[in-house]
Design brief:
alpha/beta; 6-stranded mixed beta sheet; 4-stranded antiparallel beta sheet; about 450 residues; 13 helices; single chain
Amino acid sequence: MKLKSFKKGVHPFEGKELSAGCAIKKIDACDTLVYPLSQHIGAPAMPVVAVGDRVLKGQMIAEADGVISAPVHSAVSGTVKAIEKRLTLDGSRQECIVIENDKEYEAVDGFGKERELDSLTREEIINIIKESGIVGLGGAGFPTGVKLSPKNIDNIDTLIINGSECEPYLTSDYRLMLEKSDELVQGIRAALKLFPKAKAVIGIEDNKEDDFKLLTEKTNADDNISVYELKTKYPQGGERQLIYAVTGRKINSKMLPADMGCIVINVATCCAIYEAVYKSMPLIHKVMTITGEAANSPCNLDVPVGMSYSEVLEAAGGASEDTVKLLSGGPMMGFALSTLDVPVVKTSASIVAFSTDDVATLKTSACIHCGRCVGACPEMLVPQMMAKAVKSNKFDSFAGLGGMECIECGCCTYVCPAKIPLTQLFKYGKAIVRSNASKA
């Protein structure tokens, strides 16, 4: 059977063999945990605790502030030491709640209490997901309760579970599907209960054959859940690409997946839904991949949200002395870390350590009009013309060329023989177009 996929894309070095065989290991929380109030798309959460308060494991320490927002919960019991601006993952200083861990891990009432899915209404499930602070764990961070509450509920016919994990080096989702398959399927069933006319499809790339076989076995008796094997290609896990591969439907930047009858959620998000709905546990931990050629002991760690990246790397065995570059996320869409003294948030995916930095040594030359960027772009754009428009400050032309449809996947930059930083140019161009539109 022909593998499902999308058009174009690239095949970067995977690097997954470094950590794919490493079972998820749970690590203890550190002495001090830091919780940014903005760990999601939308308005930052509002603190509901004060300095000096004692908090419990699983307690809400900041509530959602508006429709597009998400609460924050403590992963430990302890004392609120400060509410202040701290350096965060994106390099900005954001308001954070700082908690001193008392190592007692006393939990709030009801934490871990089991629920029966059949006893819950749709509204109750949505409220549980919202109050548990669940956001998209594939990296986007959009509040899941909002995503699962589209206006056209009866038009949703396909719930797509993203098990692609197409980003090189990352293996946390792979391990979740392998080790938490029962919880994953239960989470999917909870999400399906929200859409009376929908069926679920789990999309898994064919480089994860054991995941595909296991989940096919787990769902064989369920007529509402199917498993599709997808071609291993980047960015197979992109929302638009995944929808096209699974359904053949196309969406653009002015549309939501729900407009085409689809909802897309990541496998880690489904596992978080399981914990919230069935186990009364808010989102307070994240599975991260620690890997790369310079990582001493590549692994997958179950990390309490709020720990620092430096403590996570230390728990993983550290990195070699010749490490020259550390990434948060993968090499295609991740970004370099200037410091490890930043907190793990809900969307943290990995720490990738390299002993060489190819990007820093690249020498850019003039575009040779080879068309490789056009052949790689999964959005069918013409990156060389878009780049020329941005460099000439012709942002209307950039938008007219479809610049706002760019998903910033990095395919064009990856294949460019002239080593032009195309993705960075397009991020800049999009920001200028948005800024101009807001001023109009």
